[in-house]
Amino acid sequence: MIKITFNAFSFLRKKLKEQNIPYVEAPMEFPDGFTPQDIIEQFGFSDGEVEAVFINRKVQPKDTILKNGDRIALLPPGTPGSYRLILGIKKVEQ
Predict the structure, then answer these.
(1) Would you call 76 helix, strand, or coil by DSSP?
(2) N or C: which terminus of the chain has fewer CB atoms within 10 Å of its end residue's CB?
(3) DSSP 3-71
(4) How high is the pLDDT of residue 89?
(5) How many Cβ atoms sit within 10 Å of the Cβ of residue 6?
(6) Given this model, what pLDDT does residue 93 score?
(7) Which residue, among 67, 75, 78, 62, has the nearest Cα to 31 in the 3D structure?
């Protein structure tokens, strides 16, 4: 088992609250080999409801294998334009 700290933002919180799942600095345990995609599916979100996953404050792929002590945050679509670049959600096109 791995222990992580979980956060979710915006309308994702409402959906989690309806399921009585904590979503702010929430300690959670998952099986070894779990990924953010597994969390997204377990909590009943569609892929389109989660635009970005932060692992330890950096945008990472949804299929990243989580490690003990990781800090995870799920971000829905709708983050304003310039912040998308700053946060690493959208890459600068060259």
Answers:
(1) coil
(2) C
(3) EEEEEE-THHHHHHHHTT---SSEEEEE-TT--HHHHHHHTT--GGG--EEEETTEEE-TTPPP-TT-E
(4) 60
(5) 21
(6) 46
(7) 67
Residue 13's contacts (CB-CB under 8 Å, 6 or more residues apart) are 23, 24
Between CA 63 and CA 35 the distance in angstroms is 5
Distance separating alpha carbons of residues 84 and 94, to the nearest angstrom: 16
Tokens of 66: 């989580």
| Tens digits of residue pLDDT in 18-74 | 999 999 999 999 999 999 999 999 999 987 899 889 999 898 999 999 999 999 999
10 Å CB burial of residue 12 (0-12, 13-18, 19+) is buried
Q: Which two tokens stand for residue 51?
A: 């635009």
**pLDDT at site 81:** 54
